[in-house]
Design a protein that fits this description.
single chain; alpha/beta; Rossmann fold; 2 domains; four-stranded parallel beta sheet; 13 helices; globular
Length: 245
Amino acid sequence: MQVGLFVTCLVDLMRPRIGFATLKLLERAGCTVVVPPQQTCCGQPGFNSGDRESGRAMALRFLGDFEAFDYVVAPSGSCTGMIRCHYAELFPEDPSLQARLNALSARTYELTQFLVDVLRLERVDSTFAGSCTYHDSCSGLRELGIKEQPRALIAGIPSAELREMDKPETCCGFGGTFSIKLGDIATRMADNKCQDVLSTGADAIVGGDLGCLLNIEGRLRRLGDQHTRVLHVAEVLAGPEPEGD
């Protein structure tokens, strides 16, 4: 099985170790993984801001980069949601092109969704130890139905303890440009999320979208919390890299 790894912009620019953790997990699961070096954005920022032309351009680029693979996997519910749910809107005037995009979109998965729903993986070899709480990102939960998959994989780590928040499905306030356009509302939402995280007493907050995690981490630090770890689910499932790597 040949899998194309879609790294995503935020992972590439802000936390590349998530991409390496994703690669490790896929290879451990028996996949042959290829990372197209010319890949770029999925087109979500422009599309969500009303720039459909940039969305169309990025969709065509994605098609050219990934159409040859059996599956495409991304460590992001948000980017995967764009591909699976919104590429279908972009080329209504070209049925042949739209059919190719639809076929590729159907083979594109968020990481935990792919591990559980496609590969039927029940456990991973991880050394993560401690307690964590899981934040359900809006796109992953509401567009893709990702809820139980990451929790099942975390629960399979003997040394990990999952502590649920009171409202794990509530938005963290990021929402891409939402947090820029409506900063006061976004900040209040982030504060509420941080209080929910801290109320669990967990050592770490874990999620599947780096945008949410960066938003939550930034607010935690501004509120004075310097201890709660903020981790992508790929980092938890893959375990830490050996020293010197």
